[in-house]
Predict the 3D structure of the following.
Amino acid sequence: MDYEIIGESIQMVEIELDPGETVIAEGGAMNYMEDGISFETKMGDGSTPDQGFMGKLMAVGKRALTGESIFMTHFTNRGSSGKKRVTFAAPYPGTVVPVDLHQYNGELLCQKDAFLCAALGTQIGIAFNRKLGAGFFGGEGFILQRLQGDGMAFVHAGGTVVRKELRGEKLFVDTGCLVAFTKGIDYDIQRSGNLKSMIFGGEGLFLATLQGHGSVWLQSMPFSRLAQRITGTYASGKGEGSALGGLGNLFGDK
């Protein structure tokens, strides 16, 4: 699958489809597409078309546990005269990360809202975290998205993304900054420092620990952190154009 990442800080991915080729995506992720591409909303990812209705129902039921829609959109090049392009982007600023699943033993674990689009045949399921601490205190909870296949998949992260290669060492990460990791990485949660640091440090009560052999993708601006800053600004009355800031609220609408 040929593709191009467009933009720098607010990215989207443009995918070229050969005649008859299909890409699957989350609903609402499409930006634009060329004439000749048709799209259809289907139940599930289409990775196992012969599994029957009940099999599809069980598969999409797992997706529902992550808060995602049980339906996905399939975009197919129906033309017969060359490649056609379709472009996808996530609903908030960030970076699109291309991942060739074949290079990572056919599997990637990612946070539940990170998946953007992938080649047809990619199985999008869930993985239950076996660590109790990670389940209760990690940003991802017990449930992570599992992408399986041998083609291209694209995940989205907030802000700038960095990839770390672990060779047995341990990495400590803010729980919201974890985007994805490959097989061979052990994910857990531990308390962040002593009681004083936990209360006054501003880094959260818990940190994610990643250890093993594999790749880890981290994001600089989790959406939850961005949303918290925006809502906090408006809640305090520090809107743009207000010279008095929060003091303006003392006078109400008058």
